[in-house]
Amino acid sequence: MRKYITLFVLLCVIPLAEAQEVGIIMGTARDLMRDNVEEGLIKLKGMGIKYIEGAGSRSMPRAQYKALLDKYDFDVVAGGVSFDKLESVDSVKVLIENLKFFGAEYAVCYWIPHQGDDFTFADMQKGIAVFNKAGKQLAEAGISLLYHAHGYEFRPYPGPGTMYDYMMENTDPRYVNIEMDVFWMRNPGQDPAALLRKYPGRYPITHLKDRLIGSVDNLDGRQDKERNVVLGTGDVNIAAVMKAAKEMGVKYHFIEDESSRADVQLPMHLNFLRSLENDVLAVELTVAKLHKAMVAADSLTLRNLTVEGLTYGHSSGAIEDREVYIGNLLNGTSDFSKIDFQDMDITVKGDVAWARGVMNAVLISNGKENPIGLKILYVFTKENGYWRLLSRQAVRLG
Q1: DSSP category for residue 59
Q2: Given strand 306-313, what is the order of strands in its sheet?
Q3: DSSP class of residue 169?
Q4: Considering only CA atoms, which of 276, 285, 258 is closest in space to residue 14?
């Protein structure tokens, strides 16, 4: 019997979220720009960077700086604004003029003023009032206001949850949203990926930076800058952040590195993000190729895509090793004529990846087609640079 396969690959398999663009906040490039701004921009361009946060330069007039940004095709997405400038209608007008000059979509406030490390509920209430009022004025000019929290907002107050929860409930999402710095969300002991999911639609931008493993959590919004480490090597779990951000529709990620090694680490940050994206794509393609080989009973491909110690679990409870799994496909015991794999969700963590999805397949038994529906968990391990199936478990759809 001629076998065929219908695979919803890439755009058909996974409903992709809105594209996420990766850029940098310009403070990360401070050492590259210190001696010669134009040479620094050329280096950033060479790394593939286009999107930036920062509406102005401290070392040259804004018109000259804007001309250089235009020359090398940089896109200013956001610009920082100070809290005190948000308190006055007139000063907000000045902010709007500058942001529009650079073509920025977002205004970002990085701090709510408070005394020392004593952030109070009154400070939070004042911040909310200023943000809602200024955010409305900015929105009317076509600019979105974001607050960049630093972790001191997670202190308790006389109410449910934390002051951060109070802020999220009492800022108007039409006018005020959040730029999530994942380092500063991890620093008070929070899970950045969980926060992205807790408040969907509130985080159009993130700051990506990782924190040295072993760092001590605190609620002060402070940490040793040298604890900024290469993305993927710290305790923030950047892979989980990127996965949640894709699900929640985050639009932009800006790499931020406050350490003295920022210029050296920047290419390493970019390499991690690109390798993570490539690994997810490689797992998607591996799943598609595995299913195609199962339908075609292609023994060579099946061996190439599985490890020697494979454990292959069926919904019946039966477990096969690699030889039995491949043998049953070759001798017709497992005779697939069609496999559709939908709703695939992939997680990559180092050299291990897992993919969940729903398999709608057709098995041939005694010349008759028998449709089956299964929930599948695949676990892959990377061997010699290739993703290979380590384990599989199936559960019948309820």
Answers
A1: S
A2: 319-320, 306-313, 386-396, 368-383, 352-365, 336-349
A3: H
A4: 285
Paired tokens of 332? 């017709």
Place of tokens 């110690």: 309
Helix (H), strand (E) at residue 312: strand 306-313
CA distances from 140 to 87, 130, 174, 364 (A): 16, 16, 11, 62
With b for 16 or more beta-carbon neighbours within 10 A and e for fewer, the 163-191 pattern comes to bbbbbbeebeeebbbbbbbbbbbbbbebb
- Amino acid letter at 9? V
Residues in a beta bridge with 391: 311, 379
* Residues ≥6 apart with Cβ < 8 Å to 398: none
Q: pLDDT per position in the chain (398 positions), as tens?
A: 333 333 322 223 333 334 589 999 999 999 999 999 999 999 999 999 999 999 999 899 999 999 999 999 999 999 999 999 999 999 999 999 999 999 999 999 999 999 999 999 999 999 999 999 999 999 999 999 999 999 999 999 999 999 999 999 999 999 999 999 999 999 999 999 999 999 999 999 999 999 999 999 999 999 999 999 999 999 999 999 999 999 999 999 999 999 999 999 999 999 999 999 999 999 999 999 999 999 999 999 999 999 999 999 999 999 999 999 999 999 999 999 999 999 999 999 889 999 999 999 999 988 899 999 999 999 999 999 999 999 999 999 87
User: How many Cβ atoms from other residues are within 10 Å of residue 88's Cβ?
Assistant: 13
> Would you list the DSSP string of 375-391?
EEEEEEEEETTEEEEEE
Q: Is residue 131 within 8 Å of 176, Cβ to Cβ? A: yes
Question: Which residues have a Cβ under 8 Å from the Cβ of 294 and sit 6 or more positions away?
Answer: 302, 329, 334, 336, 339
Say how far apart CA 213 and CA 206 lie, in whole Å: 21
β-pairing verdict for 352-365 and 386-396:
unpaired
8 A C-beta contact, residue 72 and residue 52 = no
Query: The tokens of 75 are what?
Result: 């896109």
As a whole number of angstroms, the distance between CA 91 and CA 221 comes to 27
Task: Pull the structure tokens for residue 231.
Answer: 């993305």
